[in-house]
Specification:
This protein has about 450 residues and is an alpha/beta fold. The protein has 17 helices and 15 strands.
Length: about 450
């Protein structure tokens, strides 16, 4: 995964193109629900054209698309809704990659800031003002039927538009606003601004008609800490394309990729795929690696993602592990399975208590035995088949990784059980059915 700022790159291939697990469908306003796909529905173009298609404005206050968890969630939801027959437009910041067959409208740039850094930043304020203006202009011209807002900033922008257009608002909740600020070091708990921002977060949480969460833990947080009504909260876990993310592959190709990456072909590899940041636990992962490399001469760590590759590469070198840890930078979503296939163990050391963890379903679908810190979100995804370390404890993380290296049979067994769990709970067809029911509930209310 490359830089987070800069100019927009080439058009990105549509990862849903040719995927047979997702059924096409059409939105039928005469019945007030989303009709599932069938040969008759696909063939009857005249009938489909006679029906009004619900127009959905997705507000994404980020530089969409950029190959990491939040963006993959936005992308997959948009493509599935489009496949179901909704007319989708995504309103987002001026940078990011375009997606084939997906309408994306972008804000203008600001002269003093061509890109933006990941996570909370004061630079988001002018970006969000421009996003509000862009979304308002589009909404007045095209009159959306539904507004689907991601993140708290998106919901705050989307609410007045929903009132203006008389379109119900869906809020895709991806973690606590103030919790994320604290995780990123942007806000200190108990500081002067903490309580006002916490109150603003609670206000935003009560604006939408429906709230979608990626975990039961997030749903509990909304109920218990922000007093949101259970009836408006719907669970939509992060999904995975289990046809694209699958184990196996050609042994020679895997060995050749190792060589290209500078990894000895016979090495056992621990893989990480995601953003490189402190709240993702990258420093803790490197400390855990430092505990293991002397005991396992054949062990190598493959850390895939961005930004801050140079910082963490330098940290690994300071720890004497320059030859035992490889940083790839940005990995495109469609290329990720090829790299994950060379892994023997996957690790998800995220320390955030409120955000989802979209990398875990990807690991699971690859049949990779997975180590994670023992958080509510990690247990929700991995269940009894995950291997857990004490939160924020790098020595415990090292012990958990070691337990899988010492028992290859157990590691393989856990990996395949995780894949079965991913297919059952987090596959894209399962995600489609959940989205159909959520949007049917919304349309029924409307």
């Amino acid at each position: 995964m490359g830089s987070s700022g800069g100019e927009r790159e080439q058009v990105y291939q549509n990862p849903l193109a040719g995927y047979v697990g997702i059924s096409p469908g059409v939105c039928d306003t005469s019945r007030g629900e989303t009709a599932g796909g069938s040969d008759t529905a696909i063939a009857s173009g005249r009938e489909a054209n006679a029906r009004k298609r619900y127009r959905v404005l997705i507000i994404a206050p980020t530089s969409f698309f950029a190959d990491y968890g939040c963006h993959v969630r936005i992308l997959v939801e948009a493509l599935i809704l489009q496949r179901l027959g909704y007319e989708i437009t995504i309103s987002t910041y001026h940078t990011g990659e375009d997606i084939a067959d997906l309408r994306i409208i972008r804000t203008s740039s600001i002269p003093w800031r061509r890109g933006y850094e990941l996570g909370p930043s004061l630079h988001h304020i002018p970006f969000d003002l421009l996003l509000c203006l862009k979304s308002l202009t589009w909404a007045l011209r095209h009159k959306p039927d539904i507004i689907h807002a991601h993140l708290h900033e998106g919901a705050l922008i989307g609410y007045p538009l929903s009132r203006l257009c008389r379109a119900p608002l869906i809020f895709d909740f991806q973690g606590s606003l103030t919790g994320e600020m604290i995780d990123h070091g942007f806000l200190r708990c108990g500081s002067l601004f903490h309580n006002p921002l916490r109150q603003l977060e609670g206000l935003i949480d009560h604006l939408p008609r429906i709230i979608i969460t990626s975990s039961r833990h997030a749903a509990r947080l909304l109920r218990q800490e922000f007093d949101c009504h259970q009836k408006k909260i719907y669970l939509l876990p992060d999904g995975v394309n289990t046809d694209l993310f699958r184990p196996g592959g050609n042994r020679e190709e895997n060995s050749a990729l190792k060589v290209r990456l500078g990894i000895p072909p016979q090495s056992r590899v621990v893989v990480y795929l995601g953003l490189l940041a402190e709240y993702q636990g990258i420093s803790l992962l490197l400390r855990a690696a430092g505990e293991l490399v002397d005991s396992y001469p054949d062990l190598h760590f493959l850390i895939m993602g961005y930004p801050n590759e140079d910082h963490y590469r330098a940290l690994a070198a300071e720890m004497g592990m320059a030859g035992r840890v490889t940083f790839t930078g940005r990995i495109h979503y469609l290329e990720a399975p090829r790299y994950l296939k060379i892994g023997d163990v996957a690790v998800g050391p995220k320390i955030s208590a409120t955000e989802g963890s979209g990398k875990l379903p990807n690991y699971m679908a690859m049949a990779l035995p997975t180590v994670a810190f023992d958080t509510a979100v990690s247990r929700e995804y991995l269940g009894e088949y995950g291997v857990y370390a004490r939160p924020r404890d790098y020595a415990s993380l090292a012990e958990a990784i070691s337990s899988l290296l010492e028992d290859e049979g157990r590691a393989i067994s856990l990996g395949y059980k995780l894949r079965e769990r991913a297919i059952e709970l987090y596959s894209w067809p399962r995600l489609q059915e959940t989205m159909k029911s959520i949007y049917s509930a919304l349309i029924g209310e409307g």
